[in-house]
Amino acid sequence: MYILAGIIDFFTSINGIFYTLTYLVGGIPFGLLYGKYLGGVDVREVGSGSIGATNVLRALKQSNPKLAKKVAVLTMLSDALKGVVIIGIAKLVGLSYEAQWMLAFLAVVGHCFSPFLKFEGGKGVATTVGVVAVFLPFEAILGLIVWFLVGKFLKISSLASLFGVVCGIGSSFFLHPEIPHITTHTPLVLMMCIIFYKHIPNIIRLIQKKEQKVI
């Protein structure tokens, strides 16, 4: 009874409500929805099967190249804003910085392990960039720059994403040796670990030199 009461108290508390809501919002598969309703394609059946912007671009490019770019950008922005909106609301209602960082982490978890897709999901890069930008904009910008440059010259999305994440989060250890208000890099490291975990198939293909390029 005490355990049940504790669970009920947690999920009815302001923090618990925000945590649950963030995970659910983070799990919304925008890429899948946009692909189906704007492009008439199930992105899970094309390319890598991911619901992220890169696979949306790959899936729709076959039938409508112009639409593909627009939907891919829309997917990327939607995924990036998942956590940002919730964190913004959390700031307004006065949730602690510790709770806000937990929301950032849960947005990434929701995207990568969506409750709407049998706990499958995307790679978490765009969502991570969005939530990190709320707290550490310089690190987010640096990560985006590296992502853009690697993607532009090597044309391999997964490699660009991994380099961008490593540089963006890695730079936080130099730019902010102690993360403001929480003094720990743990949320950032956990996000990076999830992203690398979701990229394991890509990493294997990179090692085998079989990873597809985005043309």
From TrEMBL:
Protein's UniProt name? Glycerol-3-phosphate acyltransferase
Enumerate the NCBIfam families for this protein: glycerol-3-phosphate 1-O-acyltransferase PlsY
The organism is: Helicobacter turcicus
In the record, the note on similarity to other proteins reads: Belongs to the PlsY family.
| Topology of this chain in the membrane | Multi-pass membrane protein
GO terms of molecular function? glycerol-3-phosphate O-acyltransferase activity
Please list every transmembrane segment annotated in the UniProt record, as residue ranges: 16-35, 71-93, 99-117, 129-150, 156-175, 182-200
- InterPro entries found in the cross-reference section: G3P_acylTferase_PlsY (IPR003811)
